[in-house]
Specification:
10 helices, 293 residues, alpha/beta, globular, two-stranded antiparallel sheet, single chain
C-alpha cells in the first residue's frame, strides 16, 4: 500500500505542473471512462436527478447528467493542480465578489461560521478566503479511512495556511479558541448526509424530505457568532465566483432552526441556478424519516 501511494503521489506531483488547459484534456478521458465505461454511480445520479427535477424531461435530465460527469472530471484535475498552482492564479480563477464581509466582521473581533456545500469546486475555496492577519481561518473535514490519502488531501487543503479540523474535534477546538479570545472564520460543508444517530433535523430540499446536520447552527448559536453562506457560481471552465451572503450577524438572536432553514433555501437556489455543478453521485437520500425511530 505504501509503495502504491508513493507511486500515485509521484504521478500526481508531476501531473500538477501541467497548465490547466492541458489538464482539461485528461478531464475528457476521466469523463469518458467514468460515464461510458465504468458507469460510476450512474444509477445514483440518474435517480437523484429524476427525483429532484420531476418537471424536467428525460432529455434535460440526461444533459445535466453528462454535464455533471464532465464537471466532476474537471474538479479532479483542478484538485490535482492545487499541488503547484500559484497564489496569483488561484485568486484569478476563484474570486470572491465581496470578501470585505469576512474581513469586516473578523477585524472587529467577531468570529464567523461559513456554510457551503459540495458545489462548484469546494476544494479551491479555502485557498483564498482566510488570509487575514490575526485571524484563524479553517475548515471542518471528515477524515478518510485511508490514512495515506487522508494525509494527501490535508496537505492540499492546508497549502495556503488553512487550519483543518476533524469534524469530531470541532466543538472542542472552537471552545479552545473562545477561551483564548481568538477570532476565527470556519467553513462547514453543510450538505453532507448525517449518520443514523444524527437524524434530528429534516427539511424539504429539491422536492424530497431531507435530513441535514444542524451542528453548525448549534455551534453558532452557542457562541453568538456571525453566520454567512457561500453562494458559488461556475462562470467558465476553471473559473468560479463566490458571493458571501450574511445569514445573521449574531446567531444568538435567531430562532431554533432558522439558520439551517435559510441555508437549505439558499443552497437549493444555488443548485437550481445550474444543477450540473453539485455532487450528484453522493447517496444524499439514503435515509428516510421513518428510520429515525
Amino acid at each position: 500500500m505504501i509503495v502504491l501511494y508513493y507511486i500515485f503521489y509521484a504521478f500526481v506531483w508531476c501531473l500538477s505542473f501541467l497548465p490547466l488547459p492541458v489538464l482539461y484534456l485528461f478531464s475528457y478521458v476521466i469523463y469518458f471512462l467514468a460515464y461510458y465505461v465504468v458507469k460510476y454511480r450512474r444509477g445514483v445520479v440518474r435517480e437523484n436527478l429524476l427525483r429532484s427535477f420531476p418537471e424536467k424531461s428525460l432529455e434535460e435530465i440526461v444533459k445535466i447528467e453528462k454535464d455533471y460527469y464532465l464537471h466532476f472530471a474537471d474538479v479532479v484535475v483542478e484538485t490535482v493542480k492545487l499541488m503547484h498552482i500559484s497564489d496569483e492564479e488561484i485568486r484569478h480563477r476563484m474570486q470572491f465578489t465581496n470578501p470585505e464581509v469576512i474581513s469586516d466582521f473578523c477585524k472587529n473581533g467577531k468570529s464567523m461560521i461559513m456554510l457551503l456545500g459540495h458545489y462548484g469546486n469546494w476544494e479551491w475555496i479555502p485557498s483564498i478566503y482566510l488570509n487575514y492577519d490575526g485571524i484563524i481561518g479553517g475548515e471542518l473535514y471528515r477524515p478518510l479511512n485511508n490514512k495515506f490519502f487522508d494525509g494527501f488531501f490535508l496537505k492540499l487543503r492546508s497549502r495556503f495556511g488553512t487550519v483543518n479540523i476533524p469534524k469530531n474535534d470541532a466543538l472542542r477546538t472552537i471552545v479552545g479558541y473562545r477561551r483564548e479570545n481568538k477570532t476565527f472564520a470556519l467553513g462547514f460543508i453543510a450538505d453532507q448526509t448525517p449518520s443514523k444517530n444524527n437524524l434530528h433535523y429534516w427539511n424539504n430540499f429539491l422536492n424530497q424530505d431531507t435530513p441535514f446536520l444542524n451542528g453548525p447552527e448549534r455551534i453558532a448559536r452557542s457562541g453568538g457568532y456571525a453566520v454567512a453562506y457561500f453562494d458559488v457560481q461556475k462562470v467558465a471552465r476553471g473559473y468560479y465566483t463566490c458571493e458571501i451572503i450574511t445569514i445573521t450577524e449574531d446567531a444568538k438572536q435567531t430562532a431554533e432552526n432558522e439558520i439551517t432553514d435559510k441555508y437549505v433555501e439558499l443552497f437549493e437556489r444555488t443548485i437550481r441556478r445550474n444543477p450540473a455543478y453539485w455532487l450528484w453521485s453522493h447517496r444524499r437520500w439514503k435515509h428516510k424519516r421513518e428510520s429515525e425511530a
